[in-house]
Queue: 4 jobs
Job 1
Amino acid sequence: MEYVTLVNAEDEDIGEIEKIQAHELGLLHRAFSVFVFNSRGEMLLQKRSAVKYHSSGLWTNTCCGHPRPGENVCDAAKRRLQEEMNIHCELKFKQKFIYTAKFDNGLTENELDHIFTASYDGPVHPDPSEADEYKWLSLHEVKSEIQSHPEQFTFWFKNIVSFF
């Protein structure tokens, strides 16, 4: 079982809970989102695997997840970036924000999301259980695709892109 850290609006730890239970109950918990850019300024997007428990088959940022209880958020983001996309690089903290999204399957995301950016020009080898596809797009192309086909993107991604 995977556990997440429950937090208050100030990002202070208030407990731990099993990940699925946190999403079933809609409890605020700590998360992260990583945005990788290449030297041409293009953003690396992934299409979430069809086997994901929510938002499957949707385009989103390079990687996202939850730190384990007691795990440093940046260390967790680096770990998941390697696990999901097989990318090793340094991350830079950008900002954090809270968002809530209810899904058709009854789950609710209620996350205090830490946003990280990175620069990377190497190979990308996504784990097929995490991502079905990937692509590099300019920020202009990303925003244009979101405007044309918002249903093809995750809720959090559409919100975070406005920070860039």
Note: The first strand starts at residue 3 and ends at 7.
Job 2
Amino acid sequence: MKRVLFALLLALSAPAASLPVWAAPLEGTFADPALEARAHGLQRQLRCMVCQGQSIDESDAPLAQDLRKLVRAQIAQGRSDVQIKTYLRDRYGDFILMQPPVQPDTWLLWLTPLLVLGAGGLVAWAVIAKARKIPDSGEPA
């Protein structure tokens, strides 16, 4: 009996699942999918100043919510992505960008991974060179 009831409910709900749904957009979202995608893309490029490891698109911090509203308001006013980023950089500094620009004051930030890799390679080379110089006595230790 349970199987028959389940099959009947499934059969009745199938036509409803195929109907189009016209829901009102959520508050704070754009009705235009292109603008919504642009907003999400821009929000992923901006760092949450509270969380610091998340973009404002991912963060639930109150500041991130305010920044999302600000970005969306500026998109609605017709500003370009570059204008919005410039506005936020002027207000919060380069740290707001998830990918800071390469300029003299960020060279150390960008070059540190290469410097660490190079230092590791030099240490490995020195250890290998020292190991080659030790004569092998042939006896187990």
Note: The mean pLDDT is 82.
Job 3
Amino acid sequence: MAEIVVAADTSWVINDVRAALGDERFTIHEVADPRAVVAAVGEFAPAVVIVDLQIGSMGGMAITRAVRDAFAGGVETAPPVILLLDRDADAFLAGRSGAAGWVRKPFSSGDLRAAIDQLVPAP
């Protein structure tokens, strides 16, 4: 079972992620406080981190950088981050922040699963 950390502070985003990924393949851990994401990543060692672009005072791009920077081995040891974007224009900034992938909100289950499947091989 793959661990996933979801960083979002709005219930509809969490609900949509759970609906898209809520099966026996994943265990989902929710984090509403952007300052607690790095600790959650350390605790759960997720296969992927899903971050809402608009979360709290840090924002998704800052969280992406913080997750990457928290690992001594750099990009190779940090879990990949998928950003949930508000508009297509944010894709440029998502790439600059080091996100491994992104999906535009509102997203379909298929869109999110496709992004996850590129990063987490099926068992």
Note: The domain at 2-119 is CATH 3.40.50.2300 (Rossmann fold).
Job 4
Amino acid sequence: MKDLYRSPYEAYPFLSDGIDDLRCDFELMTDEMASRIGLLRALISDAALKEELLWLCELVYHMNPALRTPLKVTKEERDRLLAASERLRAEAGERCRRFVLCQGCEAACQAHLLRVQGKQLVRLLYRHVRQGHEADPLLIDLANLLSGYFFYLALKLNASSGVDEIDFVSRNY
């Protein structure tokens, strides 16, 4: 095998990690998620929600190195995220009992993208564990909760913008 060229301008020191090493992939995914949270925050005018999104951005960055170093996110922070998710779910009411298309106002669409990224984090964490590595269960809980939070937030943002959800009816189920 030919030696791997490493650019002297490498943007991140772990970009050349082996193809089966998922740690850098996790770090890039959390970096993208934090960036998308910042983008969503730019679309929000509600001061309390902007503050919550800033907290979530920091939380995701605290999750970022957790496959290389001990997780520094606390159970109390997980509980805060759970409470925020439950609050949004209650606000969404009947909207969250339906399978809906990812559409609506721009902020809701961004929240849907974040919802999917939460699922992608979970999937990557499970792959990492199946490879025989450790992943703090709290980290897996946080990724799952982030996905739920952003789903409920998308519903709330559409409701706040007067956008009706559009049901998706699968041809397969």
Note: The chain has one domain: 23-66+73-160.
